[in-house]
Amino acid sequence: MTDWNDDASRDLMSLGGRLALLTRGEGSWVWDADGNRYLDFLGGIAVNCLGHAHPVFVEAVSRQAATLAHVSNYFASPGQLELAARLKRLAGTGESGRVFLANSGTEANEMAIKLARLHGNPRGRTTILVVEGAFHGRTMGTLSLTPKAVYRDPFLPAVPDVVTVQRSIDSLEAAFARFAAAAEGGIAAIIVEPIQGEAGVVELPEGFLARARQLTAEHDALLILDEVQTGSGRTGEWFAFQREGIVPDAVTLAKSIGAGFPLGALITFGAASELFYPGTHNSTFGGNPLASAVANAVLGHIEDAKLLENVNARGAQLRAGVAEHPLVTGTTGAGLLIGIRLSAPVAAQVRAAAHERGLIINAPTEDIIRIAPAYTIGDAEVAEFLTLFGAALAAVASDLSTKENPA
Known about the structure:
The chain is α/β, with parallel strands linked by helices.
C-alpha cells in the first residue's frame, strides 16, 4: 500500500500540503487513517456548524437523496422554495426580498459583482470599492475584489474598476468624495466583509458599516455584504449586519448554511431585488433539492435547538479561557468566529504544536490563530480545547525562551 502523501503528490493538483488523511468524524472530533483523534476547532473553515455526522444532517441527506436529488434550473422544488422563504425571514428582507441559491461563497460573490454592474452600468458607474485585507474568493471575478497580491497578482489583469480603500471611515469618506467630484464615472457599490476572517478575524472600525450605509444611500450606490464566513449564525446573530443595526442592499452567505454540504446564496433587499431579469444569471446545480433539504434541516435545527444562544455563550467562555494563556494578547471576532492574537509571529508553530497534540486550528497570519468550532460544543469540548491549546502555547513559548536565552 502506498503512502497517502505519495498518492496526493501524484494525483492532486499541487496547491499545498495536506495535514492528515481524515477518514471519519463524529461531533467535534475527527480521526485520521492511522487512528489518531483530533478535536476539530476549525470546522472545515467555519463550515461544520453542527460538527461531523450530526443526525440532522445525515437524515436530511439520506431522506432527500432517496427522493429527488437534482432537477436543474428549469424547475423549482418544494425545499428550494422553503429555503428561500426561510432566508428572507432570517435576514429580515420583508416581502420585497429575493434569494438566489448557488454552490459556494465565491459563486455567490460573483453574482454580487454582477449585481453591482446591473446597478451601476445604467448610471455610468463601474467602480466597486473593497477594503484592504479583504478575501472574497478565488475565481477571477472575486479574486479581483481580493487585494492580497500573493493571491491575485499571478492572474492579472483583473476585472477593472475595483478600488481598495483602507480599513477606516476617513478612507471610505475620501473615496466617495473623490468619485463624486470626478468628471466621469462613479461608485456602483462597496462590497465588504463585516469581519475579515481570512485576514485574521479582523473587525471593521466601529461605525464603519453604518457610515458605509449612509454614504451608499447618499450616492445611490449599493452596500453589499460578504457574509460567507459570518452568516448563518456564526457570530451569534443570523447575520453579522444585524449586530450593526443597518440594512444592506444585498448579502452573500455560504459555509455554515449547509453544515458541510456545498451551498451559497445571495439575498437582496428592496430595489436591489429587481435588478436581475431572465437571462442575466443562473446556475445548474444551485439550490437543487438535495442542497436545499440539507440547508432547511440545518437552519431549522439551529433555530429549534436555540444554538445561537450557545454560540454566544461558548464564544464568551473561550475568550475568557484563553486570556491567561502564554503568548495570548487578546481576541477578536464575535460568537464562534474567534481570532486569538499572539505576542510573537509564531502562529504557524502554535498550529503545528496543536496538531501534534490532537487539536485542529488555523493560522491565517503570522501572529493570529483562528478558531471556528461547531455551534454544538459544550463544556467537554471547551475544556479539552483549553488544555490542548494551552499545551501547544506553552511548548512554543518554551522554545522561544530557549532561543532567546540559550544555555
